[in-house]
Amino acid sequence: MTESQRRWHRPVRWLLLAMAATLGGMAHANEHPTTSPTATDDPYLWLENIHGQKPLAWVKAQNQATVRRFADSASFKTTRKQILQVFDSDEHIPYVNRMGDYLYNFWRDKAHPRGIWRRTTLAEFRKDTPHWDVLLDVDALNKAEGKRWVFKGVQCLKPEYVRCLVSLSPDGGDAVTVREFDVPSRSFVKGGFELPVAKSEVDWIDHDTIYVGTDFGPGSMTESSYPRIVKEWHRGTPLTQATVVYEGKRSDLAVSASHDDTPGFERDFVSVAKDFFHSQLFLRKGGRLERVDVPEDASADPHREWLLVETRSPWSVGGTSYPAGALLATRFDDFMAGKRHFEVLFRPDAHTALDSYRWTRHHLILDVLDDVKSRLEVLTPDGGQWERAPMEGAPALSTVSVVDTDPDHSDEYWLSVTGFLTPSSLQYGVLGGAAPETLKREPAFFDASRFAVSQHFVASKDGTRVPYFEIAPRGMKLDGTNRTLIYGYGGFEVSLLPNYNGSVGRAWLERGGVYVVANIRGGGEYGPAWHQAALKANRLRAYEDFAAVAQDLVRRGVTSPRHLGAEGGSNGGLLMGNMLTLYPQLFGAIACEVPLLDMKRYSHLSAGASWMAEYGNPDTSDWNFIRTFSPYQNVRPGMHYPPVLFYTTTSDDRVGPAQARKMAAKMEGMGYRNVWFYENTEGGHGAGADNRQAAYMHALAYTFLWDQLK
Hints:
There is one protein chain. By secondary structure, the chain is α+β, with helices and mostly antiparallel strands. Among the domains are: 49-85 and 445-708, Rossmann fold (3-Layer(aba) Sandwich); 351-442. It is built from 16 helices and 39 strands. The strands form nine sheets. Strands 32-33-35-34-36-37-38-39 form an eight-stranded mixed sheet, with helices on both faces. Helix 1 crosses helix 2 (11-19) and helix 4 crosses helix 16 (691-708). The radius of gyration is 25 Å and the shape is globular. Residues 1-35 have low confidence and may be disordered.
């Protein structure tokens, strides 16, 4: 199965790759509402005109006020410099992925703010200073073309890896141009495959043919602004002559097609994502599609002779019942012939969940979370059985993950090992060989010896046991005076795991702050059930969990409400909006980043229609429960809200800037003075198109929080 096909059919796994705890990739198509509320219904509706002159003038005035208050200070400048030094460091680990004989990497630093795509060999990579062969310099490309391209990824044709499809965004958003690139000549192919800027999905079939889903014209995109139609496009023919492979419904989330080029197991697939958690996979044989008949909320992953099925709800089939969160294996051809016997490769319990898995040539590596801490297992198919063995793990309270393998040719693997106070390391090994060797280490950006990591559990409102991690100064006095920041997300089955963060260390911990990561429901820390416990009508459970963590920190004497801050972005921004409106008494300041906030309108703004499986449809009776967690509707005059900073980007084509704009304007209209707003122009949903922009946004948030929590 190709990564292109896997992204669409396993949206949560793609989510983890695509955004580092943000919502999945979306598009511009629905910037304008499909319903027509009046200015009387919503006096701030005009701010939804993303590029309108009047809204942008409002943004400019808001930015100036926020910059004067927080970004003109010496503290901000120092913090920004410290964070930028982390981002621009030449000593970061150059994470690689293997394609044939080479290891490929995309790299940004001070000299290359938009980045370079490059490659080297394993022998070179082992050296302290490898020689890199630069294939594409995005900054040089921008200078030559007069553009501001942001690199968004590359897909290369196996097995030669000579021709590649490069995706470039004009502003850091998710809409991209796709251009064919020739590796030997280090140049784009004249007259090659090329798509204009749009929300596109492509995959190689062979040298002269690709699958393409894009904006083919009116009606070709779903209501969620993904491709609705996928076509087969042959070299040298206009896109208008591409052959339709499949047409989905407007109500589908997305449609895509892919080619599995595993030698001896070449297959083609069509994937129809119904929503974020339901999809259908079809095997394409000539002009006929045959369903891979697993439950729509399960993922089906063909690989060589095997089919892996990851369940999201209990499944009874072939006379056997399997729990939610299980990983099952059978032979692909047997399954397509109607057989339904599975081997259980992973079965969750109250403390464990499957985080991910990766194939090597002869083995399968499972990454299991045990109370939000990593351990690895190696499974080996042997006839009709699967042998199981532990794999060398990670230090306590840490995260270990398989970042790359070479499943077509070898049993090599690359591990990332990281922890809150342990700089990340990149390890290389071959299963069946010696212990993995550490090839690269992240530098220490702050003195970790001054701090300690601990894990705590607290009972939420309904009695559910909720974990959280605390990073605090050693010997900290439990007198309630410590400036403490809680970070949370709580949605889309995304797990928040221990991870080294040099900017947090410099901008928060070294100043004497306490940093907390809350593993609330809605995430994936305990598998599908943990996520489903906070879906739709149960959304308030996530917010009760976060509030319980805040209250526990106060109860334990770590901090007090006036010294306690909260931070979150995207779905985590919705979490922050609800902390502001439902639990204002618990916090001294809140940073609300690229957020959802107007849950009455979210499904008509930017790409919001694709998230209704998570939140519900506000145009139906679902509004009866959605309204309970819609901050824009629940904010009231005359309340004692803590100071809040909203930040967003004009180019965010997932959530869009309108929601943060409207919330800030509404609160200011109610007379609240401790409301701050900042909107970057570039960067998309990630809030920064390069390291300087990202450092600015991070420094702004930390400066605001530190100032307000004093």
